[in-house]
Amino acid sequence: MNIILWIVQILLAFVFISHGRLMWFPLEPKQREMLGYIEAIPMGLRRFTAVAESLAGVGLILPWLTGILPWLTPMAAVGLVLVMVGAIIFHVPRKEYPNIVFNLVLLALAAFVAYERFVI
Fold first, then answer.
1. Average pLDDT for residues 62-77, to the nearest whole number?
2. Which residue from 13, 62, 81, 94 could staple onto 57, CB 3.0 to 4.6 Å apart?
3. Distance between CA atoms of residues 115 and 98, nearest Å
4. What are the structural domain ranges in the chain?
5. Of all helices (H) and strands (E), which one includes residue 9?
6. ∠ CA(31), CA(80), CA(63), 5° rounding?
7. CA-based max dimension of the chain
8. Of 24, 28, 1, nearest to 9 (Cα)?
9. Is the pLDDT of residue 32 over 80?
10. Dihedral of the CA atoms 14, 20, 22, 23 (nearest 10)?
11. How many C-beta neighbours within 10 Å does residue 93 have?
């Protein structure tokens, strides 16, 4: 189970750090088609979310890997669950159903990491 958890943690960390970077820097024209919703987010919330996602992505890996404050790893996963709930709430009125499904998958994976790392 530990190997599966590490795979999921690394995958989630990659996704959230990458998305945080996309939210922080201006989008290229070809990215606007798929990620146009980013520009609909108010700038302050976009910056906050970019920092929160990036730090949570790092928090999924480093604390557990180093053994320094390992309780931060499941807390980072819980934070990502909350971010995904907010993302779903954002996408529902915009009828962005593929994004909602993707957010539900990420929410489930983050909840899995949070639960398993709290239990261990």
1. 96
2. 13
3. 26
4. 2-119
5. helix 2-24
6. 110
7. 45
8. 1
9. no
10. 160
11. 7
